[in-house]
Design a protein that fits this description.
By secondary structure, this protein is an alpha+beta fold. It has three helices and three strands.
């Protein structure tokens, strides 16, 4: 894995999020992109550093659910 492959994975995630304006669970993103955990985590980190995604955590019973969605800027 290198910066180019991480960037390509981030681009794939961004296009997926951009095409469907909703919150995604981690496992949904993993399944939809076909990325391994390591690749997905690196790409999510890339997008987070660029401010392109935001996170939302909520409790579901005793488990915490992490949702990822596209950040929209109007300006």
């Amino acid at each position: 894995m290198n910066a180019q492959s991480i960037g390509e994975s981030a681009k794939a995630i961004w296009h997926l999020l951009h095409g469907d304006n909703r919150k995604w669970e981690y496992q949904e993103l993993k399944k939809a992109t076909g990325l391994r955990d390591r690749e997905l985590n690196a790409a999510i980190g890339w997008l987070a550093c660029e401010g392109k995604i935001q996170f939302d955590e909520s409790m579901q019973g005793q488990n915490t659910a992490l949702y990822i969605e596209l950040s929209y800027y109007i300006g």
